[in-house]
Specification:
Blueprint (H helix, E strand, L loop, with lengths): L1 E5 L4 H6 L1 H10 L4 E6 L4 H4 L7 E4 L4 H14 L3 E4 L4 H9 L4 E5 L10 E3 L7 H4 L23 H13 L5 E5 L11 H15 L2 E4 L7 H8 L6 E2 L6 H9 L4 E4 L2 H8 L4 E4 L13 E4 L19 H4 L3 H13 L12
Parallel strand pairs: 1-2, 1-4, 2-3, 4-5, 5-6, 7-8, 7-10, 8-9, 10-11, 11-12
């Protein structure tokens, strides 16, 4: 059986789709599995031992036509379209696969011949496993997302830290792709400073793009003796950085998904959205606790994001401190959920 998974973007969504690949290889070890994504997200699935080949789709209609031709030549038995955008729908339809599957939506039947009703609710990565019913996997393993990298990558990051005299540390990620998923940089910095002093750890402040540097620097200005990375790290190097950290502190964003993928203790400051993380002994979700939260409709917030704006570091510091102090078994809890 030859299978193609389509998840073009966003970065977090691509990472959250990796449990699909692990399940397919577990239940069908002889299957050939390919993954179609964007060039920017390629590093997330590259080197994944459960994926045999990574295909990329660049922007533009010419590239879509070229990629569609490549996919037709592969002669897939199954295409699982997790994305369900105009591009992914067209590619799925034109793939000529015997099974063209997606989650059930209005006006989907033209593109797919198998529609799956989503019955799992809660953690997005587990919800997506329902699509595997299209190929007879009705009780998938609830494995967590994983991002793989080489020993050379990890050594490069460790040498980077050593050259800057950074020993034990934790990672602070105060930025996010969307402003609606960002807690105040000042509060991030003050909480990080409290954690740094309590655990005698260096706070390593990171950011995803050059445009986010100002937010990272503002956050760092409230931390005693922080280290702000000189420039954004490539995805795999960032994963290695987080893997070797004592813990990670971030928003409901890609950086926190990467921390989870490395089984690093992760504190996620949540605002209007939910469902993107699973809370367990390795991951702590912090909400302000407003009656309207989570609404999952940040673009329509009538309260000027009070869930973030009114959340102060002082009201959550004790909970975070206790979470970090609590011993972790370092075992993935996904099988117990």
């Amino acid at each position: 059986m030859k299978i193609l998974i389509i998840q073009l973007k966003q970065l977090g969504d691509v990472l959250l789709s990796t449990p699909l690949a692990e399940n397919i290889k577990y239940f069908y070890p002889k299957a050939t599995l390919h993954f179609l994504t964007s060039p920017k997200a390629e590093e997330i699935v590259k080197d994944n031992p459960f994926i045999d080949k990574v295909l990329t789709l660049k922007d533009g209609i010419a590239n879509e036509i070229k990629t569609t031709k490549e996919i037709r030549k592969e002669k897939y038995d199954v295409v699982l379209d997790i994305q369900r955008t105009g591009r992914s729908k067209r590619i799925t339809l034109l793939s000529n696969a015997k099974i063209r599957a997606a989650f059930k939506e209005k006006n989907n039947l033209f593109f797919y011949n198998v529609e799956i009703t989503k019955t799992t609710h809660g953690y997005t990565a587990f919800e997506r496993l329902d699509i595997l019913k299209a190929i007879g996997i009705n009780k998938p393993k609830r494995v967590m997302p994983k991002l793989f990298f080489s020993k050379e990558t990890e050594d490069r990051v460790l040498n980077y830290l050593k050259a800057r005299n950074i020993g034990n540390y934790f990672v602070v990620s105060p930025t996010a792709r969307k402003p609606t998923k960002m807690w105040a940089a000042e509060e991030f910095g003050k909480l990080a400073n409290t954690l740094s002093k309590n655990f005698n750890l260096k706070a390593v402040v990171v950011y995803g793009t050059e445009s986010e540097r100002a937010v990272a620097e503002k956050c760092a200005s409230f931390i005693e003796d922080p280290f702000v990375i000189e420039k954004p790290l490539p995805i795999k190097e960032f994963a290695a950085l987080v893997k070797n950290a004592e813990f990670s502190l971030g928003n409901d964003s890609f950086a926190s998904h990467v921390a989870v993928s490395q089984n690093t203790k992760t504190i996620v400051i949540c605002g209007p959205t939910s469902g993107w993380f699973l809370e367990n002994e390795s991951t702590l979700l912090i909400y302000k606790g407003l009656s309207c939260q989570p609404c999952n409709k940040p673009e329509k917030c009538p309260y000027n994001f009070a869930c973030y704006r009114t959340l102060k570091h002082t009201e959550i510091a004790e909970r975070v401190l206790n979470f970090i102090k609590k011993p972790s078994s370092q075992l993935r809890l996904s099988e117990k959920v």
